[in-house]
TrEMBL record:
Protein name per its UniProtKB record: TldD/PmbA family protein
SUPFAM superfamilies according to UniProt: Putative modulator of DNA gyrase, PmbA/TldD
The Metalloprotease TldD/E N-terminal domain, residue ranges: 35-90
Family as reported in the entry's similarity comment: Belongs to the peptidase U62 family.
Annotated Pfam families: PmbA_TldD_1st, PmbA_TldD_2nd, PmbA_TldD_3rd
Ranges for domain Metalloprotease TldD/E C-terminal: 232-447
Gene3D superfamilies, sorted: PmbA/TldD superfamily
Domain Metalloprotease TldD/E central as annotated: residue spans: 121-225
Annotated organism of origin: Sphingomonas longa
Length: 449
């Protein structure tokens, strides 16, 4: 795989070629990745897979017209053909008054922050196999587990580079490791249930122990056996952190630049107003050391920094790339994302909800009749109106305590009301790209299937 310097030079070279070929401005992305995945099942090796890829994407501007092209053929002849095709396409494209590169004066200059995203460990397939076997073995050892869908371990190394004709050229490397187990409990006569556990980390040494991952998978599957049905009605719904992060995802999607410029967001008029209760905040931290979504600059070459998206319940900012910022008469926020093809979108980095004060036991302690959700099913969320309806599974809450498993029910509400009636516990942990503590939403409608 290329070094970060070589990747940066590749991107800068094709930008220079595009300018020579007649483009008024250009930017380019280079991405390379090598991944190794090992899967096991019932104590035996099932599959070993290795993949490698390298791609380059080029975006060019001729006046207010633009075009994007990409290729995995990185030979010199292919590069020249790519440039010529892109410039020719841009000349025929419709004009877009908002398109363009990020403001040159806003670009990141100087050394990027050191985020420790790349591990120096390079595990052999045998080591990944042993981790996967250990995780599956621990899951199968849980009493009540009767079958296995397998265990898996993976490792990847990637390099990403961006260059623009306005003077930015940067790159960084990252590694990622994952370990998982998925098992079944029960039997065909009485009914079977499956569940899983997974952990991912930038550094191999930061992965949870395989026996802990396996034990969690097994215990989760067994706990779901013999589910009952819920009575329909309005009741408090408590979201396990593993699924509660989706509530934050809907919020972030609603404040992205394209949703605001197109006027397709249920939070369209919410900037500067209270959307969460007092004390709760949503933060984005791209500088978190070895964070799963940390990055030294955004997809347009702008510097990134920790941001309070919601502060003490009040929505403080939209998430804007340069194009949406121009359309709104605002400044880009450093949240641009970039793939190989097309122009920038927006994304967050390590996002989390904090400010929860209550222990989980207190959060649910006054719920006479409610539900604790551990799985969400379907995509029944309307980003324009905020209407929310999803299938779910989990556990009853009776008399302030977790009771037996329940399945085949629907939870419904409106996201504005759900956010306004949100209560957060104090058990926030940083395990994913988006992290939340246990969350409680009062007054949701539950319907049994």
């Amino acid at each position: 795989m290329l070094t970060t310097d070589q990747a940066r030079d590749r991107a800068a070279d094709i930008v220079a070629r595009a300018r020579t070929a007649g483009a008024d401005a250009a930017d380019a992305v280079f991405a390379a990745d090598a991944a190794l995945e090992v899967s096991v099942r019932l104590g035996k090796l099932e599959d070993v897979g290795r993949s490698e890829s390298a791609e380059l994407g080029l975006r060019v501007f001729v006046g207010r017209r633009s075009a994007s092209v990409s290729t995995s053929d990185l030979t010199p002849d292919s590069m020249q053909t790519l440039v010529e095709r892109a410039v020719a396409m841009a000349r025929e494209a419709p004009e877009d008054e908002w398109a363009g590169l990020a403001p040159a004066e806003r670009l990141l200059h100087g050394a990027p922050p050191l985020l420790d995203l790349a591990d120096h460990d390079d595990p052999a397939p045998e080591r990944l196999r042993d981790l996967a076997l250990a995780a599956e073995e621990a899951a199968r050892a849980v009493p009540g587990v009767t079958n296995s869908e397998g265990g898996g371990a993976s490792g990847s190394r990637s390099v990403w580079a961006l260059a623009t004709s306005t003077g930015f050229a940067g790159s960084y490397a990252a590694t990622g490791y994952g370990l998982s187990a998925s098992v079944l409990a029960g039997d065909a006569a009485a009914g079977m249930q499956r569940d899983y556990a997974h952990h991912g980390a930038r550094h191999l040494r930061h992965l949870d122990a395989p026996d802990a991952i396996g034990r969690e998978a097994g215990e989760r599957a067994v706990a779901r056996l013999n589910p009952g049905r819920l009575a329909s009605g309005a009741m408090p719904v408590v979201f396990d952190p593993r699924v509660g992060s989706s509530l934050l995802g809907h919020l972030l999607g609603a404040i992205g630049g394209s949703s605001i410029t197109r006027r397709t967001s249920f939070l369209l008029d919410a900037l500067g107003t209270r959307i969460l209760p007092h004390g709760l905040s949503v933060r984005d931290d791209p500088h978190r050391p070895h964070g799963l979504r940390s990055r030294p600059f955004d997809g347009e070459g702008l510097p990134v920094s920790p941001t309070a998206i919601v502060e003490d319940g009040v929505l403080e900012t939209w998430l804007l790339d340069s194009a949406s910022a121009r359309q709104l008469g605002l400044e880009p926020t450093g949240h641009a994302s970039r793939g190989i093809g097309g122009g920038p979108g927006v994304t967050t980095s390590n996002t989390y909800l904090d400010g929860g004060k209550l222990p989980v036991e207190t959060l649910i302690g006054d719920i006479a009749d409610g539900v604790y959700v551990t799985e969400l099913i379907g995509q029944g969320v309307n980003g324009v109106t905020g209407d929310y309806s999803r299938g779910a599974a989990g556990f009853r809450i009776v008399g302030g305590a977790i009771a037996g498993p329940v399945a085949e029910f629907t939870i419904a509400g409106n996201l504005k009301d759900m956010y306004a009636n949100l209560t957060a516990a104090n058990d926030l942990k940083f395990r994913y790209g988006t992290n939340v503590p246990t969350l409680r939403v009062d007054g949701m409608t539950v319907a049994s299937g």
